Amino acid sequence: MRQRGTFLRHATLVGVSAIMLVPFYWVLKTAVTNENIYAYPPRLLPESPHLFNFVDVWYFIPFPRYLLNSLIVSALVVASNIVFNAMAGYALTKSFAGKRAILLLFLSCMLIPFQATIIPAYLITSKLGLLNSYLGLAFPLLSTIVCIFVFKAAFEAVPQSLVDAARIDGLSEWRVILRVLMPLSKAAIATNVVLAFIWSWNAFLWPLIITREPTMQTLPLGLARFLSYMEDTTGALYAFAVMVLAPSIFVFLMAQKEFIRGLTSGATKG
Amino acid sequence: MMPAAGDAPGGPAAERRDGWWQRKRTRELALVACFLLPSLVVFFLYRVLPLGWNLLLSVQYWSPLKPARWAGLDHYEEMLLYDDVFWQSLTNTLIFIGAAPFAIALALGIALLVNSDLKGAAVYRSIVFLSYPLMTVAVGIIWRWMYDERGGIINFALRESGLVAKPIPFLQSFEWALPSVIVAEVWQVLGFYMIIILTGLQSIPQHLYEAASIDGAPRWAQFWRITLPMLKPSLFLCAVVGILNSFTSFDLVYIMTNGGPGHATELLITYIYKSGFGQTKFDYAAALTVAQFILLLALTYLANRAAGGNAGSLERR
Q1: pLDDT, tens digit, for every residue of B50-66?
Q2: N or C, where is chain B less crowded by C-beta within 10 Å?
């Protein structure tokens, strides 16, 4: 009876997993396919798979340029997220007048989806003179509320006695943060890196609005552009998709725990 | 001022030296202010200010290079009385959000299956969650290809199994386009719902189930009386994610159908983009944004009521 239950569970879950994985398989298969991708019936296994499509993507569209832009924006976002969020998270562990108001402000800001602000956000960025610039691309993501709370929780978990001991040893406030709190909050830093990277790497609507020149476009824009002039006619499109998906899948598999902790920390506790 | 538990150095020595304590306190406040400043600037420029500016724009006639003129509620009048596309995108957005409960129920089922001592549960969890962190533009391209009339695997499977005689042009047909986009969206977000629910499941105290078992409560009764009520905050959060997704699914719709055919898959957010950046009607797009924001607040409020009224309140933090 119990064994049959276990078997049924496995069977269901294998079925669910298979359905979830089909899109991955299909895009990978198409990316390495040689023959006409419109042949019917489509082959389930690629015939003589090859990597020419990937080479095409690298040389025949400005892929390296898109990649460079994406990497610069992601690096900016990741670095500033660690610094700004750690600072804000540390400030929130202190007690001060107006802390409740600030917390309330942060929590209500979480409810404003960025997409709901695009028109004024575009105008503001234009007034700042940051259209078509790396800083402009990164600006809305420079600090994220969820990650501030991740840092706050991590700092609060550091035993107070340790902080006091460091102060008695004469460490300044800065030193306490850099030498005691940050090294003990590695998990929070990892969460920040992973979330900030994924968010900036995948961002599409904002770059679509504020970049005017192809030389400033990031990978998602390059992919959309490629789609608009090639339609679905070539395996190279799917090779391109695989190339932009690979880094996020890699990051996710390496740091699954940190990623999930970050996403759910806003959900369960502050 | 109450000394905060733990972090105030307000020992007896500090009280004796009042001036030193005051200076220390001022320095600490300055530090707090400096540390909060960068984040506050970002949130002010890209959350708070846009919200107000948006409201202002929506009651003005405004376009780049022209001075603004007061418009009152003209844009809202046009939107509500004369704009069929607005009503269609509103309907589509509501259908989009209406699919969320089914996706959440599905995720709940999967979460219950993997939340056990089942061998390999972690692997199943990772597979289901794998689609969530992916770039939505690429996800849209993958699903376009899966739905393709000639080379797509979905039409292939349907034809091979004899379910349909002729291939269905999913994304080009008025009936199928919206459901097709919704399926792709659910595929991507399902794992996130599952993770939220799993976190909720793990916070239910085990002794509740033990007590229920001793009292002889059957499994289904335990599910209805313990699991579901205890999961309310998690389910509320899933609902909020589902509501917000109608905003964030811009990428998917833009890539898969760009709102077409006709306006069959137009969401409010894609319509806002088209009005604002396609036709440079920034003022009108601002009014549309206000409409969507009100929708978002109303639905979140209703979900909160359904979850018992205080989910996500400040006290829990």
Answers
A1: 999 999 988 888 877 77
A2: N
pTM above 0.80, yes or no: yes
pLDDT tens readout for residues A247-256 = 989 988 888 8
Whether B2 maps to a domain, the answer reads no
Residues of A with Cβ-Cβ distance to B293 under 8 angstroms: 116
Q: Name the minimum distance, in Å, from the CA of A238 to any CA of chain B.
A: 8
Closest partner residue to A220 (CB to CB) among B129, B137, B289 is B137
Domain of residue B125, residue span: 74-316
SS (H, E, C) chain A: CHHHHHHHHHHHHHHHHHHHHHHHHHHHHHHCCCCCCCCCCCCCCCCCCCCHHHHHHHHHCCHHHHHHHHHHHHHHHHHHHHHHHHHHHHHCCCCCCCHHHHHHHHHHHHCCCHHHHHHHHHHHHHHCCCCCCHHHHHHHHCCCHHHHHHHHHHHHHCCHHHHHHHHHCCCCHHHHHHHHHCHHHHHHHHHHHHHHHHHHHHCCHHHHHHCCCHHHCCHHHHHHHHHHHHCCCCHHHHHHHHHHHHHHHHHHHHCHHHHHHHHHHHHHCC
B311–A contact, CB cutoff 8 A: no
Cross-chain Cβ contact B142/A241 below 8 Å: yes
Quote the pLDDT of residue B11.
Answer: 52
Q: Which fold does the domain A51-158+185-268 belong to in CATH? A: MetI-like fold (1.10.3720)
Instruction: Report the number of distinct structural domains present in chain B.
Output: 2
Q: What is the chain A residue with the closest CA to B237?
A: A267
Residue B3 has pLDDT above 50, yes or no: no
User: B50 and A117 in contact by Cβ < 8 A?
Assistant: yes
